[in-house]
Amino acid sequence: MVQTVYQRSGRGALLILKLIVVPLAVLLLGITERVHGPRAAGWLSGFPVIAAPLLWFITAEHGAAFGAASARAAFFGLVPWLTFVTVYAWSAQRRNWWRSAAAAFAAWFAVAELMILLQGASPLMDALPFAAALAAMWWHPSAKGPDEQRQHPWWRLAVRMIAGATMTVAVAGVAGTIGSAWSGTFTTFPVVGSIVAISNHVEHGKRAVQEAVAGMVFGIVSVEVFCFVLSLVLQRMSMGHAFALALAAAMGAHLVTWQVTRRIS
Fold it and tell me: N or C: which end of the chain has fewer CB within 10 A?
């Protein structure tokens, strides 16, 4: 009885954490987009502002072994994330936002299922998420924004934040019923990525989608580095030191990708 109450309170706290982090992340990205454009906002969305606190809470509740396994699953979960943004960007050139979103989410679920099957097949599979990121960088062109000034009504940012919170509730409800194999994968579900892609598509058109996705595929490298490092060190040192080391590695990767995006822009 006590354990059941604890598990329910833990899930409730995790949901509250998501509901705080996701809208704040969407707000920060919206402000960045207004000041620096969709590419910069897309790049910033790649930093593990959601994956890091979620994995921290999961580890604190379930232990280092479970946390390391979840970090590894999240690491492989970035392959379907990259699939989502790539399919959305491709579809957005020809279709409206809801058709593009439907195609991208369908692709995410298909690739996520495949990654769950493959991640324990061979140690060589550890290179797959990094290879997918490199392929995505090559695939997405260095799109430059139009010269005209874009309009940013205040209510659109509020709609983005509400949409992010709503999607978070839906994802949390589904993830709690499908078993532990999907828990880490859903840590990297494209909540913020989909909000960034869809909102740019609706508000500014397909060109803005290309800008945002081009930034996101470079920024996501830091999440890959974070999850990979965390999965390796979480059972070898204290929880605080493990997360600090993984975040430091992610920050270094994020700074490198920022320099790369500046040079090719």
Answer: N
Crossing angle of helices 206-233 and 64-92, rounded to 10°: 160
Q: Which residue has the higher pLDDT, 220 or 162?
A: 220
> Which residues are CB-neighbours of 22 under 8 A, at least 6 positions away?
50, 164, 165, 167, 168, 191, 192
Number of domains in the chain: 1
Core vs surface per residue 72-89: b (16+ CB within 10 A) or e: bbbbbbbbbbbbbbbbbb
- The closest of 105, 15, 56, 92 to 226, measured between CA atoms, is 56
Range of the domain at 27: 2-264
Residues 234-257 as b/e (b if ≥16 CB within 10 A, e otherwise) read beeeebeebbebbbebbeebbeeb
Is 224 in contact with 133 (CB distance < 8 Å)? yes
pLDDT tens-digit map of 5-38: 445 555 566 667 667 777 787 788 778 777 777 7
Span 44-82, pLDDT tens digits: 777 787 778 778 877 887 789 888 988 998 899 999 999
Residue 6: per-residue pLDDT: 42
